[in-house]
Amino acid sequence: MNKGKIKLGLIGGGPNSFIGIVHRIAAYMGEQYQLVGGVFDIDHASGIAFAEKLELDTSRAYESLEVFIEKELALPADERIEVVSILTPNFLHHSMAMKLVDAGFNVICEKPITITAAEAVELEQLVERKKVVFCLTHTYTGYPMVRQMKAMIAAGAIGKIQKVDAQYYQGWINPFIHDKDKRAQVWRLDPKKSGQSCCFGDIGVHAFNLIEYTTGLEVEKVLADIDTLYPDNPLDVDGTALIRTKDGVKGVICASQIATGEENNISIMVYGDKGGLKWEQENPTYLTYMQEGKPAQIFKPGNPYNAEFAQESTKIAPGHPEGLFDAMGNIYKGTALAIRGEKVREGAFPGVKDGVRGMKFIEAVLESNKQGQAWIEIK
C-alpha cells in the first residue's frame, strides 16, 4: 500500500492548457497527489519554463515521453512517478497510453481513450495484463448529484426504467464552421488529430456514458443521423441517435456543437414507472425527482438525506455550489484509492472498459449514419 502522496506526472497540460489546470486542481483537492514532473509541452524550453513557474524540479520536465519513461524507470521505486495523466490531443492517446502502461505506470487519460474501438480493445487487454490502474476522465460522473441519481435509480426510487433521454449542446464551432479557411484550422475538425468523429466523439459520448453510468443499463443498438453541415467538412458537428438497451428500454441522445448560444448544456433525464429524475450540468447542484401526482422534489449536495456515495463525493457544506473542478477531483480521489490498493466503490472513477464502450458507441453511430440510418449493434 502506498504511503504519502501519490507522485503524479503530466503529459501535456502545460502553458495555456485549460484542461491542464482542471487536472492539477483536481489532483490537489483531496491532498492525495504531488505533481512531480512530466512532458508539459512539445517545446522543451517552454516545458522547463512551466516547471519553474510551478516550482517543480526542472530535471523532471522531460523533452519526450520516451525520455520520461527511461529516466523515471531509472529512479528508485519510492522516488518514481506512479501515475501519469495524458492531456494531449486525441490522436496521441493510444500510443502514449500503450507505452506508459507497458512500462508499468498507472494512467489517467482524457477522453476519447483512443481513435478507434480496435485500439481501445488493444489497450484494455494490455491494462489487464499489466494490472495497472487506468482511469478515463468522463468528468460528469464525478458530480455528487449524478452519483445521487445513480444511487436512487439502483435503490428503485423511479421503479422500472421506461425511457432515457440525454443531450449535450454547445455552440462553440459556430464562429468557425461557416468559413472554409477558419474551419480548416480547427484541430477537432481534422480527422488526423481528432479521429473519426468530432461531435459524437467529443461530447455525444459523454451523454452515452452518463446513461450507462446512472442507469446501469447497457445500450445494445443505435440508429443515428449526423450532420457535417458542409459537404467539404469531414467530421460531424451535430446529430441524434436513437438507442435501445439490452433490457428493451428506448431513448435518445442529441448532441450538437452548432447549437447557437449554448455553452456546455449537458443534461440527462431518466423516467421509470414510479418516477423520474433529471440533472443539468449548468445547474449541477440540483437533482429533480418527480413522482406522479406529487410535487417535484429537489435534492442538493451536502445533505444527510443523500446516499452515502453522494455524501462521500461532497467536499463542502450545503448551499455552497460545487462544479467541474470538484467533479474531476472526485475522479482523482477514486483513482487514488485504487492506486493505494484500498477499497473502491463501484462508479468511483471511469475505467478502460468505459473507454472501450464509448469507442464502440461512436463507431456504431457513424456506421448507422453511413448505412442510411440503420440500426447498428454495439458489439
TrEMBL record:
Residues 7-136 form the Gfo/Idh/MocA-like oxidoreductase N-terminal domain. Pfam families: GFO_IDH_MocA (PF01408), GFO_IDH_MocA_C3 (PF22725). It comes from the Bacteria. Residues 146-277 form the GFO/IDH/MocA-like oxidoreductase domain. This is Gfo/Idh/MocA family protein.
